[in-house]
Amino acid sequence: MTHSRHDAQTTCTADEALARLKAGNARFLAGHARFPTVQKEILANLAKGQRPFATLLGCSDSRVPPELVFDASFGELFVVRVAGNVLGPSIAGTLQYAGVYLHTPLLVVLGHEDCGAVEAAIAERFHGIKHRSRIEILLREIIPALEAVDPALPPEALLEACVEANVRTTLARILASPEWKENAAPRGMKAVGAIYQLSTGEVRFLE
Predict the structure, then answer these.
(1) Residue 38 above 90 pLDDT?
(2) Are 197 and 29 in contact (CB under 8 A)?
(3) Please, what's the largest Cα pairwise distance for the chain?
(4) How much is the pLDDT for 41?
(5) Cα–Cα 20 to 30 A to 152, which of 4, 40, 49, 205?
(6) How far is CA 31 from CA 26, 36, 81, in A?
(7) What is the arrangement of strands in the sheet containing 54-58, beginning at the earlier edge strand?
């Protein structure tokens, strides 16, 4: 992935970007999505460069496609997806690219209910269940987030609490990074956490 001379900064602020995501999710919930099809003229224009208004770090789960969830068209979101919405080195590099070269004003860490990666981390952390080697590497990014969660919670409540803790921990790591403090924050970028509800389609933005 290289920086293109055609790439340009979006004109909206972080707060405006967040409002657009919330409005898009509301249209999605109401069945009034704006982009059932995309005209060829739009695609041809996008080939000249991209100006996404938000970057999303989300889970790879097939039930959580961010562009549909937020009723966003081609070129509007810069999406990074990995199981458990974790922050590994290559993910951090991709997010940095979005901030430095695409100048997206908003970064969203999007988790979702019933996340299988978080569930696997719970099984390992609290029940000693082991997984295959590459999955173990992934779970190492999630398990530290579970330390402050009460393992005595009922299973559904435990998973819900761990999903939120995982989002908050990833968000905290991003905000504490030198890259964010030295480059993103001074430019007015904003980062928020959110949880997608599989059963309803609603996105709950975390305070």
Answers:
(1) no
(2) no
(3) 56
(4) 84
(5) 205
(6) 9, 11, 25
(7) 77-81, 54-58, 106-112, 190-196, 203-205
Structural domains present in the chain: 14-205 (3.40.1050.10)
Helices 155-176 and 116-127: crossing angle in degrees, nearest 10, is: 100
What sign does the CA torsion over 110, 111, 117, 122 have? positive
Where residue 2 falls among pLDDT bands split at 50, 70, 90?
very low
Contact indicator for 174, 87 with CB cutoff of 8 Å: yes
Q: Which of 58, 42, 53 is nearest to 19 (CA)?
A: 53
C-alpha 21 chain-centroid distance: 12
Position 6 scores a pLDDT of: 45
pLDDT at 50 exceeding the cut of 50: yes
Helix/strand/coil percentages in the chain, nearest 5: 50, 15, 40
**Element of type H or E holding 40:** helix 40-46
